[in-house]
Amino acid sequence: MGQAYSCITCFPSSSSKDPSQSQIPDLEMNDSGSPTFLPLSPCATPTTTTTTTSTPNSVARIPANLLNHTLDQPTQWLQLSPEISYNHNYSPLEMALSRQHRGSGFDVPGAVHSVTTPRLDKEMQGDAKLVIIMVGLPARGKSYIVKKLRRYLNWLQYETKVFNVGNLRRECESEHEQSAKFFDPDNAELKKIRDKLALDVLENLIRWLKEGGRVAIHDATNSTIERRALLLKRLRQEPQIRVLLLESLCTDDRILERNFRLKLLGPDYRNRPAADALADFKSRVANYEKAYQPIGDWEEERDIQYCKLINVGKKVIACNISGYLTGQCVFYLMNFNLADRQIFLTRHGQSTDNVTGRIGGDADLSPSGRKYAEALSKFIKEQRVQFALDLVHEQHEREEIWKSKGLEPLEKTDGSRTPEELMKAKAESICNSQFIVWTSMLKRAMSTAAYFDPDEYDIKHIRFLNEINASICEGMTYEEISNVYPDEYNLRKQNKLFYRYPGIGGESYMDVIHRTQSMIIELERMSQSCLIITHRVVMRILLGYLTDMSQKEMPHMDVPMHTVFEVRPKPYGNEILKWRYIEHLDKFVQDH
Ligand code: F6P
């Protein structure tokens, strides 16, 4: 069953100043200690980073008296020199138009190249760097969300790092008492320490961005306006940095109770008796709740861009989203779920081209490839049953742990069925749930799925999953390429990720990443289990995302033929299993 999603978006108000700048409004604290905003400077430099063919002398700026202009008036303002125009005080309309001229921060590594000049390099302040400030009470899944977001952005080549305030707090554990008392909002002394920890982490994060990072995530509760104002005030001193506030809310008691219990296994509580730890954690949450101020009017009045995720993305509210990168983040966050499922990935069975070592092409399976295809369909069926049993077993074990720690069972029964009957019913329902098979549109991949019954499986052939297009090198062996195109061969060796095969349709790994982006989003969105039958490059790219592999290693990942990778998403990350087909035994064995 798919989730019901809803999304509310709110665009910058027409009266806003410059939304791209005003995400970090000028902040001052008033006498009462609460934050006030200073008006923005009207001549803030517009923000852009996308392709433009402007040179300094062709930068046409919009004059202040544009609104009084008629078309038959002389347009000498178009010839204004950049020096004069840059010193101008712009109205909001001028700045908006000027932003359009420079583009809107559309920047895709490996696919969009921004033409700049030394001057534009110096002056442009597009969403070159992004800070995501997390907001939310403890146990609202913030760390889960940031881990996923970091993995996705890194996969897209935006270097991203999470800076967790709790980790720094734990490092300073000897200095401060870490029980619920430490989080008492009425204790000014302790609040000061917590604010300092948050600011110290912010400094680390800014330093990292200045050293070349692209997106930094401040992972903390940041649950009061005062705290957020403190962070925003510091960030305003960094004109290259844009900010997205990302709040996670949870109204589902079942998810909350599960999250609370996961905390008991985490670093703050794992060595304390469970009941005592749970009580302490709940009192910590209560302390935060006393002072909690969700994102709302305060941020909206200041045109700060924010996104609220309610119940792990079931409902999403986005406001003022004004950059390409932040738009990508919000789209991603709207598309994930927590369903228990299996994601299998395999290359197609051996093709006749694989036998002769030729790359690309559209050959069909060899006899050995056909044998693999047949074995694969049986193996997947067995693994589906095994998965259902494993899940039920894991759940039973977890309940036993809670019981041994003196806690109530998490999954309550209504008494009409025994726990064993319930488990059996659950296993059957997992086994019988819908299962999806995706293949590329190339013969060798479609033939590998030939043994899956379309009445039982939802089978789709998808072009995005086709192998990298090697253009002029299609159908050649690597040896032939090194003899005929030695320069190309060496260039690819030097930078496999960005190297694009020359000739019509030729692709790079980065190109394949972009065309599989929609596959990743779909994979995150759907809750059913699936099998993906594809090719070496696409396998590396999809597995690179699922296993959080660095881009440096990903293009060289070992993905042998006749091997199945099984991914089981878990709250703490993906669990990966690897199975190798042994042809002479006609069976799969697990590879450790
Ligand atoms: O040889 C099989 C194949 O899938 C080719 O079609 C493809 O060009 C190649 O592998 C990709 O591997 P690599 O990026 O290591 O050259």
TrEMBL record:
Positions that bind substrate: 347-354
GO cellular component, one term: cytosol
Keyword ATP-binding: yes
Bias-annotated ranges (Low complexity): 12-26, 45-56
Keyword terms of this UniProt record: ATP-binding, Nucleotide-binding
CDD domains referenced in this protein's UniProt entry, alphabetically: HP_PGM_like
Domain 6-phosphofructo-2-kinase: 126-339
This protein's record includes keyword Cytoplasm: no
Positions of region (Disordered): 12-58
InterPro entries with a match to the protein in the record: 6Pfruct_kin, 6Phosfructo_kin, His_Pase_superF_clade-1, His_PPase_superfam, P-loop_NTPase, PG/BPGM_mutase_AS
Pfam families, per the entry: 6PF2K, His_Phos_1
PANTHER family: 6-PHOSPHOFRUCTO-2-KINASE 1, 6-PHOSPHOFRUCTO-2-KINASE/FRUCTOSE-2,6-BISPHOSPHATASE
Protein name: 6-phosphofructo-2-kinase domain-containing protein
